[in-house]
Amino acid sequence: MYEVELKCRADHESLRKKLDEVGADHVDSRTQNDTYYNAPHRNFADTDEALRIRYEQPADGKAVTKLTYKGPLVEQESKTREEHETVVEDDQALTGILSGLGFEPAVRVEKNREFYTLDGYTITLDSVTDLGEFVEIEQEADEAEIEPVRERAVDILSSLGLDPSEQIRTSYLGLLLADET
Amino acid sequence: MYEVELKCRADHESLRKKLDEVGADHVDSRTQNDTYYNAPHRNFADTDEALRIRYEQPADGKAVTKLTYKGPLVEQESKTREEHETVVEDDQALTGILSGLGFEPAVRVEKNREFYTLDGYTITLDSVTDLGEFVEIEQEADEAEIEPVRERAVDILSSLGLDPSEQIRTSYLGLLLADET
Hints:
Two copies of one chain form a homodimer.
Chain A: E1 2-9, H1 12-21, E2 25-38, H2 44-47, E3 50-58, E4 64-75, E5 80-88, H3 91-100, E6 104-118, E7 121-128, E8 132-141, H4 146-159, H5 172-180
Antiparallel strand pairs in A: 1-8, 2-3, 2-6, 3-4, 4-5, 6-7, 7-8
Protein backbone atom coordinates (compact mmCIF):
# COMPACT_ATOMS: atom_id res chain seq x y z
CA MET A 1 0.00 0.00 0.00
CA TYR A 2 1.05 3.56 -0.72
CA GLU A 3 -0.01 6.72 1.00
CA VAL A 4 -1.24 9.31 -1.45
CA GLU A 5 -0.97 12.66 0.28
CA LEU A 6 -1.33 16.28 -0.81
CA LYS A 7 -0.65 19.25 1.41
CA CYS A 8 -1.18 22.98 0.90
CA ARG A 9 -1.77 26.13 2.88
CA ALA A 10 -5.39 26.80 3.82
CA ASP A 11 -7.40 29.29 5.83
CA HIS A 12 -9.08 27.05 8.40
CA GLU A 13 -12.07 29.24 9.16
CA SER A 14 -13.38 29.24 5.61
CA LEU A 15 -12.26 25.62 5.08
CA ARG A 16 -14.33 24.39 8.03
CA LYS A 17 -17.44 26.04 6.52
CA LYS A 18 -16.79 24.38 3.17
CA LEU A 19 -16.23 20.98 4.82
CA ASP A 20 -19.55 21.43 6.59
CA GLU A 21 -21.28 22.30 3.31
CA VAL A 22 -19.96 19.24 1.47
CA GLY A 23 -20.91 16.95 4.38
CA ALA A 24 -17.45 15.98 5.68
CA ASP A 25 -17.41 14.35 9.12
CA HIS A 26 -15.31 15.84 11.90
CA VAL A 27 -13.90 12.73 13.61
CA ASP A 28 -11.17 13.76 15.99
CA SER A 29 -8.68 16.41 16.98
CA ARG A 30 -5.42 16.41 18.91
CA THR A 31 -2.29 18.38 19.62
CA GLN A 32 1.13 16.94 18.81
CA ASN A 33 4.24 18.42 20.34
CA ASP A 34 7.27 16.92 18.65
CA THR A 35 10.85 17.37 19.77
CA TYR A 36 13.53 16.35 17.30
CA TYR A 37 16.90 15.52 18.81
CA ASN A 38 20.47 15.87 17.64
CA ALA A 39 22.89 13.04 18.37
CA PRO A 40 26.22 13.57 20.15
CA HIS A 41 28.08 11.34 17.67
CA ARG A 42 26.42 12.06 14.32
CA ASN A 43 24.86 14.99 12.50
CA PHE A 44 21.35 13.75 11.72
CA ALA A 45 21.01 16.47 9.05
CA ASP A 46 23.89 14.78 7.20
CA THR A 47 22.88 11.17 7.88
CA ASP A 48 19.18 11.79 7.13
CA GLU A 49 18.10 10.17 10.41
CA ALA A 50 15.65 11.46 13.00
CA LEU A 51 15.01 10.84 16.68
CA ARG A 52 11.75 12.28 17.94
CA ILE A 53 9.73 12.43 21.14
CA ARG A 54 6.06 13.03 20.32
CA TYR A 55 3.74 14.15 23.07
CA GLU A 56 0.20 13.69 21.79
CA GLN A 57 -2.93 14.97 23.51
CA PRO A 58 -6.25 13.82 21.99
CA ALA A 59 -9.21 16.20 22.46
CA ASP A 60 -10.88 13.61 24.62
CA GLY A 61 -8.48 10.99 25.82
CA LYS A 62 -5.25 10.29 27.60
CA ALA A 63 -2.01 11.94 26.51
CA VAL A 64 0.51 9.57 24.97
CA THR A 65 4.27 9.91 24.58
CA LYS A 66 6.03 8.12 21.74
CA LEU A 67 9.68 7.67 20.91
CA THR A 68 10.45 7.32 17.20
CA TYR A 69 13.63 6.61 15.27
CA LYS A 70 13.75 7.06 11.51
CA GLY A 71 16.78 5.73 9.69
CA PRO A 72 18.20 7.03 6.41
CA LEU A 73 16.39 6.24 3.14
CA VAL A 74 17.22 2.70 2.06
CA GLU A 75 15.37 3.07 -1.23
CA GLN A 76 15.04 6.47 -2.92
CA GLU A 77 12.17 5.66 -5.28
CA SER A 78 9.65 4.49 -2.68
CA LYS A 79 11.10 6.63 0.13
CA THR A 80 11.50 3.50 2.24
CA ARG A 81 13.32 3.91 5.55
CA GLU A 82 13.77 1.95 8.75
CA GLU A 83 11.34 3.22 11.37
CA HIS A 84 10.83 2.13 14.98
CA GLU A 85 8.27 3.62 17.33
CA THR A 86 7.09 2.76 20.82
CA VAL A 87 4.82 4.30 23.41
CA VAL A 88 6.75 5.37 26.50
CA GLU A 89 5.07 5.73 29.88
CA ASP A 90 7.07 8.53 31.51
CA ASP A 91 7.97 11.41 29.20
CA GLN A 92 10.04 13.21 31.86
CA ALA A 93 12.16 10.10 32.43
CA LEU A 94 12.60 9.67 28.66
CA THR A 95 13.81 13.28 28.34
CA GLY A 96 16.23 12.60 31.21
CA ILE A 97 17.54 9.44 29.53
CA LEU A 98 18.21 11.20 26.20
CA SER A 99 19.79 14.16 27.94
CA GLY A 100 22.00 11.89 30.08
CA LEU A 101 23.19 10.12 26.92
CA GLY A 102 24.15 13.45 25.34
CA PHE A 103 21.26 13.89 22.90
CA GLU A 104 20.01 17.47 22.63
CA PRO A 105 16.68 18.93 21.56
CA ALA A 106 17.16 20.57 18.16
CA VAL A 107 13.75 21.55 16.78
CA ARG A 108 10.24 21.59 18.16
CA VAL A 109 7.21 21.13 15.93
CA GLU A 110 3.93 21.97 17.64
CA LYS A 111 0.67 21.50 15.85
CA ASN A 112 -3.02 21.15 16.43
CA ARG A 113 -4.68 18.65 14.10
CA GLU A 114 -8.38 18.38 13.26
CA PHE A 115 -9.39 15.26 11.38
CA TYR A 116 -12.27 15.05 8.91
CA THR A 117 -13.33 12.22 6.61
CA LEU A 118 -14.83 12.70 3.15
CA ASP A 119 -15.29 10.11 0.35
CA GLY A 120 -12.75 7.74 1.96
CA TYR A 121 -10.12 10.48 2.35
CA THR A 122 -8.77 11.79 5.62
CA ILE A 123 -8.62 15.58 5.56
CA THR A 124 -6.45 17.08 8.28
CA LEU A 125 -6.44 20.74 9.27
CA ASP A 126 -3.01 21.40 10.74
CA SER A 127 -2.29 24.56 12.66
CA VAL A 128 1.48 24.65 13.10
CA THR A 129 3.21 27.04 15.51
CA ASP A 130 5.43 29.54 13.62
CA LEU A 131 4.27 28.20 10.23
CA GLY A 132 0.52 28.79 10.04
CA GLU A 133 -2.46 26.84 8.76
CA PHE A 134 -2.34 23.88 6.38
CA VAL A 135 -4.56 21.14 5.06
CA GLU A 136 -3.54 17.59 4.22
CA ILE A 137 -5.67 15.18 2.23
CA GLU A 138 -4.69 11.53 2.12
CA GLN A 139 -5.78 8.03 1.33
CA GLU A 140 -4.03 4.68 1.06
CA ALA A 141 -3.91 3.12 -2.39
CA ASP A 142 -2.51 0.12 -4.24
CA GLU A 143 0.10 0.94 -6.88
CA ALA A 144 -2.45 0.76 -9.71
CA GLU A 145 -4.81 3.18 -7.95
CA ILE A 146 -2.29 5.89 -7.14
CA GLU A 147 -3.10 8.14 -10.11
CA PRO A 148 -6.95 8.10 -9.84
CA VAL A 149 -6.71 8.54 -6.04
CA ARG A 150 -4.42 11.52 -6.51
CA GLU A 151 -6.67 13.06 -9.19
CA ARG A 152 -9.73 12.71 -7.00
CA ALA A 153 -7.82 14.37 -4.12
CA VAL A 154 -7.01 17.29 -6.42
CA ASP A 155 -10.72 17.58 -7.34
CA ILE A 156 -11.73 17.60 -3.67
CA LEU A 157 -9.21 20.32 -2.84
CA SER A 158 -10.58 22.41 -5.73
CA SER A 159 -14.16 21.88 -4.56
CA LEU A 160 -13.07 23.15 -1.12
CA GLY A 161 -11.89 26.40 -2.70
CA LEU A 162 -8.18 25.53 -2.53
CA ASP A 163 -5.52 25.63 -5.25
CA PRO A 164 -3.94 22.15 -5.59
CA SER A 165 -1.16 23.55 -7.76
CA GLU A 166 0.22 25.21 -4.63
CA GLN A 167 1.13 21.86 -3.17
CA ILE A 168 3.84 21.75 -0.49
CA ARG A 169 6.09 18.69 -0.51
CA THR A 170 8.27 19.62 2.44
CA SER A 171 7.56 18.29 5.95
CA TYR A 172 6.75 20.75 8.75
CA LEU A 173 10.16 19.94 10.22
CA GLY A 174 11.75 20.80 6.86
CA LEU A 175 9.78 24.08 6.63
CA LEU A 176 10.85 25.07 10.15
CA LEU A 177 14.50 24.24 9.43
CA ALA A 178 14.31 26.24 6.17
CA ASP A 179 12.96 29.20 8.13
CA GLU A 180 15.99 29.05 10.43
CA THR A 181 18.53 29.34 7.62
CA MET B 1 15.94 6.90 53.69
CA TYR B 2 18.78 4.48 53.08
CA GLU B 3 18.66 0.97 51.75
CA VAL B 4 20.47 -1.45 54.00
CA GLU B 5 21.33 -4.47 51.89
CA LEU B 6 23.46 -7.56 52.37
CA LYS B 7 24.13 -10.14 49.70
CA CYS B 8 25.88 -13.50 49.82
CA ARG B 9 25.94 -16.83 48.03
CA ALA B 10 23.32 -19.32 49.20
CA ASP B 11 22.06 -22.77 48.29
CA HIS B 12 18.40 -22.09 47.52
CA GLU B 13 17.05 -25.56 48.22
CA SER B 14 18.16 -25.59 51.85
CA LEU B 15 17.44 -21.87 52.24
CA ARG B 16 13.80 -22.33 51.20
CA LYS B 17 13.37 -24.98 53.91
CA LYS B 18 14.89 -22.67 56.52
CA LEU B 19 12.67 -19.78 55.42
CA ASP B 20 9.69 -22.07 55.78
CA GLU B 21 10.78 -23.12 59.28
CA VAL B 22 11.18 -19.53 60.53
CA GLY B 23 7.82 -18.53 59.06
CA ALA B 24 8.94 -16.22 56.22
CA ASP B 25 6.22 -15.38 53.66
CA HIS B 26 6.79 -16.09 49.99
CA VAL B 27 5.27 -13.03 48.33
CA ASP B 28 6.25 -12.96 44.69
CA SER B 29 8.65 -14.19 42.05
CA ARG B 30 9.75 -12.94 38.65
CA THR B 31 12.40 -13.23 35.99
CA GLN B 32 14.44 -10.22 34.93
CA ASN B 33 16.37 -10.25 31.68
CA ASP B 34 18.63 -7.21 31.56
CA THR B 35 20.60 -6.06 28.55
CA TYR B 36 23.29 -3.46 29.19
CA TYR B 37 24.30 -1.38 26.19
CA ASN B 38 27.51 0.25 25.06
CA ALA B 39 27.34 3.72 23.56
CA PRO B 40 28.82 4.57 20.14
CA HIS B 41 30.38 7.80 21.46
CA ARG B 42 31.51 6.95 24.99
CA ASN B 43 32.91 3.98 26.87
CA PHE B 44 30.40 3.47 29.69
CA ALA B 45 32.99 1.42 31.60
CA ASP B 46 35.16 4.57 31.75
CA THR B 47 32.35 7.06 32.35
CA ASP B 48 30.59 4.86 34.94
CA GLU B 49 27.24 5.19 33.18
CA ALA B 50 24.77 2.47 32.25
CA LEU B 51 21.97 2.09 29.74
CA ARG B 52 19.75 -0.92 30.33
CA ILE B 53 16.67 -2.58 28.87
CA ARG B 54 14.98 -4.71 31.51
CA TYR B 55 12.42 -7.27 30.42
CA GLU B 56 10.55 -8.36 33.54
CA GLN B 57 8.12 -11.25 33.73
CA PRO B 58 6.19 -11.61 37.02
CA ALA B 59 5.11 -15.17 37.96
CA ASP B 60 1.50 -14.12 37.57
CA GLY B 61 1.15 -10.90 35.64
CA LYS B 62 1.98 -9.04 32.50
CA ALA B 63 5.56 -8.71 31.26
CA VAL B 64 6.97 -5.20 31.45
CA THR B 65 9.87 -3.62 29.57
CA LYS B 66 11.77 -0.76 31.18
CA LEU B 67 14.48 1.53 29.84
CA THR B 68 16.91 2.83 32.45
CA TYR B 69 19.79 5.29 32.34
CA LYS B 70 22.20 5.58 35.25
CA GLY B 71 24.60 8.49 35.23
CA PRO B 72 28.04 8.59 36.85
CA LEU B 73 28.30 8.94 40.66
CA VAL B 74 27.77 12.55 41.65
CA GLU B 75 28.54 11.87 45.30
CA GLN B 76 30.91 9.06 46.30
CA GLU B 77 29.92 8.75 49.97
CA SER B 78 26.20 8.12 49.48
CA LYS B 79 26.63 6.52 46.02
CA THR B 80 24.21 9.08 44.60
CA ARG B 81 23.76 9.04 40.84
CA GLU B 82 21.30 10.43 38.31
CA GLU B 83 18.81 7.74 37.35
CA HIS B 84 15.91 7.83 34.89
CA GLU B 85 13.59 4.93 34.20
CA THR B 86 10.42 4.51 32.17
CA VAL B 87 8.18 1.68 31.12
CA VAL B 88 8.25 1.17 27.35
CA GLU B 89 5.39 -0.52 25.50
CA ASP B 90 7.16 -2.20 22.59
CA ASP B 91 10.47 -3.87 23.49
CA GLN B 92 11.21 -4.85 19.87
CA ALA B 93 10.83 -1.24 18.72
CA LEU B 94 13.02 -0.05 21.59
CA THR B 95 15.76 -2.51 20.58
CA GLY B 96 15.44 -1.22 17.01
CA ILE B 97 15.74 2.41 18.13
CA LEU B 98 18.90 1.76 20.16
CA SER B 99 20.41 -0.32 17.37
CA GLY B 100 19.58 2.37 14.77
CA LEU B 101 21.29 4.98 16.95
CA GLY B 102 24.44 2.82 17.14
CA PHE B 103 24.11 1.46 20.68
CA GLU B 104 25.16 -2.18 21.02
CA PRO B 105 24.25 -4.88 23.54
CA ALA B 106 27.27 -5.49 25.77
CA VAL B 107 26.25 -7.73 28.67
CA ARG B 108 23.14 -9.70 29.54
CA VAL B 109 22.15 -10.38 33.14
CA GLU B 110 19.42 -12.99 33.48
CA LYS B 111 18.02 -13.85 36.86
CA ASN B 112 15.06 -15.43 38.53
CA ARG B 113 14.03 -13.70 41.77
CA GLU B 114 11.90 -15.13 44.58
CA PHE B 115 10.76 -12.63 47.18
CA TYR B 116 10.10 -13.45 50.83
CA THR B 117 9.31 -11.16 53.77
CA LEU B 118 10.47 -11.72 57.34
CA ASP B 119 10.49 -9.29 60.27
CA GLY B 120 10.11 -6.28 57.97
CA TYR B 121 12.97 -7.41 55.72
CA THR B 122 12.71 -8.41 52.08
CA ILE B 123 14.68 -11.57 51.42
CA THR B 124 15.34 -12.25 47.74
CA LEU B 125 16.58 -15.55 46.34
CA ASP B 126 18.38 -14.68 43.11
CA SER B 127 19.31 -17.37 40.64
CA VAL B 128 21.64 -15.69 38.14
CA THR B 129 22.61 -17.32 34.83
CA ASP B 130 26.37 -18.06 34.71
CA LEU B 131 26.84 -16.89 38.33
CA GLY B 132 24.73 -19.19 40.50
CA GLU B 133 22.52 -18.75 43.55
CA PHE B 134 22.48 -15.75 45.87
CA VAL B 135 20.38 -14.26 48.63
CA GLU B 136 19.80 -10.58 49.33
CA ILE B 137 18.31 -9.25 52.52
CA GLU B 138 17.25 -5.62 52.67
CA GLN B 139 15.26 -3.03 54.51
CA GLU B 140 14.95 0.74 54.30
CA ALA B 141 16.20 2.71 57.28
CA ASP B 142 16.70 6.27 58.50
CA GLU B 143 20.32 7.25 59.03
CA ALA B 144 20.13 6.65 62.80
CA GLU B 145 18.73 3.15 62.29
CA ILE B 146 21.29 1.91 59.77
CA GLU B 147 23.50 0.07 62.28
CA PRO B 148 20.77 -1.81 64.22
CA VAL B 149 19.00 -2.69 60.93
CA ARG B 150 22.28 -4.05 59.53
CA GLU B 151 23.02 -6.02 62.71
CA ARG B 152 19.57 -7.60 62.71
CA ALA B 153 20.05 -8.54 59.03
CA VAL B 154 23.31 -10.26 59.97
CA ASP B 155 21.49 -12.17 62.75
CA ILE B 156 18.77 -13.29 60.34
CA LEU B 157 21.32 -14.52 57.78
CA SER B 158 23.06 -16.51 60.57
CA SER B 159 19.75 -18.00 61.72
CA LEU B 160 19.17 -19.13 58.12
CA GLY B 161 22.43 -21.05 58.21
CA LEU B 162 24.40 -18.54 56.11
CA ASP B 163 27.74 -16.87 56.82
CA PRO B 164 27.25 -13.05 56.78
CA SER B 165 31.03 -12.54 56.77
CA GLU B 166 31.02 -13.81 53.16
CA GLN B 167 29.15 -10.74 52.00
CA ILE B 168 29.42 -9.78 48.32
CA ARG B 169 29.43 -6.05 47.55
CA THR B 170 29.69 -6.29 43.77
CA SER B 171 26.61 -6.09 41.52
CA TYR B 172 25.70 -9.06 39.33
CA LEU B 173 26.75 -6.98 36.33
CA GLY B 174 30.11 -6.36 38.02
CA LEU B 175 30.52 -10.09 38.79
CA LEU B 176 29.76 -11.03 35.18
CA LEU B 177 32.21 -8.43 33.84
CA ALA B 178 34.88 -9.67 36.29
CA ASP B 179 34.34 -13.23 34.99
CA GLU B 180 35.01 -12.03 31.45
CA THR B 181 38.42 -10.56 32.21
